[in-house]
Amino acid sequence: MEVFQLWSHHAFGLAALAYLASLGLTWTTARWPAGLVLFLGLTANLASLGLKLYISWPMQAPHQEPFWLVACLAGLALAYWPRRWPALGRALLGATALLAAVAVFFPKDYYLPFPRSNTILAHVYLVFSAGGRATLWAGGLAAGLFLLGGAREDEKAARTRFTDLHIWGFVLYSLSLFTAEAWSYLGWSSPVIWEEPTMTTTMATWFFYGCFLHLYLLRGWDARRRAWFALAGLPLLFYFNYLPETGQFSWPGWMS
Amino acid sequence: MKPVVSAWNWLARPSLTFHLLLGLVADLLAGYFIFRAHLQLFGPLNRLSLLDWIVTYGIHNLDTTWWFFLFLLLLAGLVLNTLACTINRLAAWVRPGRPPADRLGHWLALAPHLMHIAFIIILVSHLVNYVVGVNDQNNILRQGDSLRLPGSATQLRLERVENDFYAGERLKFYQNRPLSQRVWLTFSQADGQRTVKAVGINSPIWQEGFSIHLKSYAPDHQGGMKRTPFVNLIIRKDPGIRLFAAGTALFVVGLLVYLVQVLRNGTRKDHREMTA
Amino acid sequence: MKQSIRLAGVGLALCLALVALASGPALAAAPGFQAIGEFSLRGLEGGRYEITDGLGRVLHLVPRGMEPPPGVPRHEIIPIPVKRVVMTGGRDVSMLLALDSIAVLVGVDGKTADWKIGQVRDGLKDGRIVNVGRSHSLDYELLAALKPDVLFTWDEAQIPFLADLGVPVVINYGTEARTLDTQINFVRFLAPFVGKEQMAEAYVARVKAALDRVAQRAKNAPSRPKVIWGDVWEKRVMVEPGQSWAAQLVDLAGGDYLFKDVRGSSCLEISLERFYSTAKQADVMFTYRSPESGMASKVELARTNPALGDTKPLASGRVFFPLPEYNQSGHRMDEVIEEIAAILQPQLFPERKITLFHALPEK
Question: Which residues 105-124 of B are in CB contact (within 8 Å) with C?
Answer without folding.
Answer: none
